[in-house]
Write a structure and sequence with these properties.
The structure is a single chain. By secondary structure, the chain is mainly α. The longest helix is centred in the N-terminal third of the chain and has 24 residues.
Length: about 130
């Protein structure tokens, strides 16, 4: 099933993708507090990596209107999931966010016809 108005569906799903990335960035900001009390604790390197990832996720939410926005967001799902190496709870949180992201891509594929890039142009109406 594809949407009769593919550009509108693509814009709506782009907004959803931006919201997901913003929530992921906020979730990553909670990780330092969780790892500060465990094992090795919060090192400078870990803090810089987490803050960089959070900033990249927030910035990626701002480029979801561009054709490469979904590709950037998809690439950032890998480091998000790998934050589970720093705090075990992030395996669950990151996993849930990755599943939501994959679901969004699947819905986009069904409505727009492609999970990435601009929506394909509709053929001109015969008249």
């Amino acid at each position: 099933m594809t949407s009769p108005d593919k550009p509108r569906a693509a814009r709506a799903l782009g907004g959803g993708a931006a919201a997901i990335l913003l929530l992921e960035g906020i979730a990553v900001l909670f990780v330092p507090r969780g790892i500060a009390q465990t094992g090795e604790g919060l090192t400078t390197t870990r803090l810089v990596l987490l803050l960089t990832l959070a900033a990249l996720l927030v910035l990626a939410s701002g480029v979801q209107r561009r054709p490469q926005g979904l590709v950037i967001g998809t690439a950032l799902q890998v480091p998000l999931l790998l934050t589970g190496l720093l705090g075990s709870a992030m395996w669950l949180v990151g996993g849930v966010f990755v599943l939501i992201w994959l679901y969004l891509l699947q819905i986009r594929k069904e409505l727009v016809g492609s999970p990435f890039g601009p929506p394909p142009a509709d053929p001109p109406a015969a008249g």
